[in-house]
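Hi R.,

Here's the chain you asked about this morning:
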Amino acid sequence: MKRMNEVLLFAIFAWGLSSMLGCSPVEAQSSTPGVIFSDYGPNMGISTATGWCVGGAGTPDCGPHVPRWVASPFIPQNTSTLTQIKLALGYASGSNGAVINLTNDGNGVPGSTILESWTPTNLSSSTTPLLSLKSVVQPILHAGTKYWLVAMGSASDSLDFWWDGATGTGSLESNNDGTSWYFLPGLLTAFEVLGGGTVTLVDPVPALLVGSRPTTPTLTTDPNVLGNQGTVIQGAAADGVAQAVVRISNLSQGQKIDVSILDENGNAAPTNGEDGTLSPITVGDTPDGKGGINAGAQSVGSQFMTFAAYIPPADFARVNNYQDLSIVSRTVTLQVQDSNQNVLASTPIQIVRPPVLYIHGLWSSESTWDDFDARVQELLPNLFTCGVDYSSLNHAGASVTASTLFVLPQVSSCLTDFKTEIKVAAAQFDFIAHSMGGLISNNMAANPGLSQMFRLQQTYGKGYIHKLITVDTPYYGSQFAAGLQNATPACKLIFNKMGTPIAGAVNDLVPGSPLLNSLVPLAASITKYAISGELNGTQSLEASAGTDLIVVAATLTQPLTLGECYSVFVTPLTAPPLFTFDNYFGGSGDVYGGANDLIVSKTSQLGPFPTAFSHSTIGVAHLNITIPYIQLNLFTGALDTASGNSNLAITLLNYSIASGPFLH
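And the predicted structure, written out as tokens:
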């Protein structure tokens, strides 16, 4: 409990004064914009029944004759320059005055470093006193750092009273001039800390954007909208497209400031944009020629603010910075200075990797990526990945375009989840797509009928794709799809019964189909890379022989089932006994001799990609092939960890969009 002799003594004393002065012991003045800490209640409300004596050793009115220093801790919610402190400290008796120190934290008690000190006199004797202290030193108070406000008597006979606030605990008292401290039970004493140039980072989507597709959206210039709307965030994804509004509040009328970016070492960020760039939003604000912005305060309601746009870098990993290759987040700082180069405020910005989006292939599902993603998470712990799934369309024989339409809302949902969970601005993904997933990805960008869904306002009209890495994608179709299309009716019936009808997407994958022709040339707006897979010579022979044996055995034992589908593999070059997968996928003039992954030829997987923008992984099949029950692995799949493709994907994610091995 509180020491009742202090509380009752001053409560009676203050009641008498308030009665004589006509004061009502209820609530004090209203709060001021720019608050970075407060334990006041609504309308600066305080507890008018409890508090603590603050006084010198000579005062006889509050128990034993010892000095009474009272200290209360606080942690700013924003990094800001201190402008003012308000506290509910009132006069009781003796010399009218106090000493107030702002100190650092010294292992849970007030530290020895005094950041600023005040010696106010003529304190109010009201039961709702409001002592305002203007900062002259204007130290920077850092978000997340503990500080202490310490009150003591100005003379030996001084007796003041610090009323309690509405929330919090943790006040301390010292009776030996700060040598030792003990905990005061009950609420924290009442005070409020105000800062100048408070910096807030805001995601402008959608409230601060003007325009939508097909018009590329831009940031509003209305200060009332910029100052009051948007979602508060902590950073931005390094996609070079997203934007974050830098909102700087609690400025003075007409005040001019400079906003700049500092790297993780506190130095001015390079002008090459590797830590992001700043751009003016409102008329009259200009670049400062050093990568920052000169801006002026504008009236927003009852206070003055200014704004800038932060655009994240297009690449997360910086050139020659090897630490970036294995992390998913790094920090830069936004610094605000006045016209005299005094630092007013600063705030950290988290630059994070763009999220990774997985798109599986035909007759597959999101789970196809389990092994691949496990390896990715080993290499880049906590990387945000999201998989879309259109496997529910398998039974319907949906086309590539129908599958794309089904996937696009999932892409949008994944982006929302990423932004909400990581608390950043973001517009694009790094796509990693397998097989037909690569065609779906390209179809998003190339199909005019899908543009409205792909280039949404939240992507600033640029579309969802930051980088596209395709694995075993049949850019020129697959002979296997052609074989299925020409299969016997009995074979097609078998596939229908298995829930994988030969229709829609299968027809789209036939070489020369209208869908494939519509995707050539590939959209120049996409940064892309192709990974192909192929069996080695021994594996190809084994697969060819195995296929012959299986089909022959099935034909003899179950002539109306699998044997019917042998026709899928029969061409003029592969009629028995000449069947090999290389002959099947190669044909005459194939530059790679029919190399394939059992589903798609290497020629088709590399499609329009020159050698410099592609990679061939040897010794892998389209997907893992394992004999059930005995779990005997016959062929490593392109998405298995053992293929090395997950390692390659991480390497590609670390390459620069502009200078990396990407086709544009």
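The chain has three domains: 4-196, 198-352, 356-654.

Let me know if you need anything else.
M.
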